[in-house]
Design goal:
Largest sheet of chain A: 6 strands, mixed
Order of helices and strands of chain B: EEEEEEEEEHEE
Oligomer: heterodimer
Helix content of chain B: under 10%
Distance between the termini of chain B: 36 Å
Radius of gyration of chain A: 14 Å
Structural class of chain B: mainly beta
Distance between the termini of chain A: 41 Å
Strand content of chain A: over 45%
Number of helices of chain B: 1
Helix content of chain A: under 10%
Largest sheet of chain B: 7 strands, mixed
Amino acid sequence: AQSVAQPEDQVNVAEGNPLTVKCTYSVSGNPYLFWYVQYPNRGLQFLLKYITGDNLVKGSYGFEAEFNKSQTSFHLKKPSALVSDSALYFCAVRDSVSSGSARQLTFGSGTQLTVLP
Amino acid sequence: DAGVIQSPRHEVTEMGQEVTLRCKPISGHDYLFWYRQTMMRGLELLIYFNNNVPIDDSGMPEDRFSAKMPNASFSTLKIQPSEPRDSAVYFCASSPTGGSFYGYTFGSGTRLTVV
């Protein structure tokens, strides 16, 4: 079975500082990994994904994520945080070898990022 | 494309009443998902369809919940009778074939309050 964990419910960072939102996963085969962002009163929006290739993936709004197979992690990062980055962030995973219902994405519990001015 | 469209955006109803939530997926998307989001339980997958056919409804909390997809451009999630514990934000999402490769597109959600 596939699973994903976001160990931090809340992350606070000062504006201009680098930010990291953590995500670890568990799959049988190779993972497909995604990050989504949810702003207040909005649906989830796609940020970036890792399917294969370069371990550093660049996405929207200056975000990037690093795939680390040995640590089974896919942490979201940004070099300089903005107040407008404050939102709820979700990591999601799918196992490349699964079938049936397991072919669908499994979402983490979400991490609330607050960027302080 | 207007994206995934959900209606209504907000719904307030009294306990025991029937509630119907609506979703129009992106044209050409084969998969449609219904999620529920609460502070306590986070984001939960309720049911998903492929080519209008329900594939997995194991997340539907109980028989009071039902979902239909009569055609490729419309789906409903119905709660009858509604209870206060059903209060949540309900999201619809759609994706093309191979969607977990491309990712999902979410609607803006329906905030349901049952009083």
